[in-house]
Structure prediction request, 133 residues.
Amino acid sequence: MAHTAEQRRAYTARNRKRINAYAKKYYHDNQEHLSAAERVRRKLRAWVQPMQIIETLGGCCANCGYKEHLDGLEIDHVVPIRVASSDRILTKIGSIGWNKIEEALVGCQLLCGTCHRIKTRADARATGGWKVA
Ligand SMILES: [Zn+2]
Prediction:
């Protein structure tokens, strides 16, 4: 039996959050709606922004100076707190503007993978096992 308009409205109202979350994910996963120009812009940003980040944060590991391979460098929150919003922003590299990334980098430094791991474990011990990054 087909649903009435009233039933559909009631269903939508009951499931508003779920529907919005789905729509958002669908929009993100299916980016054909983006113009060709925007797709090119995003590709370029995804390529350039990691290098801009590394340059902004000094270009090498703040602890040992490592800079041989870009993939060996990681972003560390100097004060060991999880800044959820800044972490979220940094996963969107390529699809957001530089000004937002710059904001997210406040309080961050560049560390090589090894120094980052050592610092993270030391921070965790100092804060009683609090998972930090
Ligand atoms: Zn290092």
Observations:
- The mean pLDDT is 85.
- Strands lie at 73-77, 108-112.
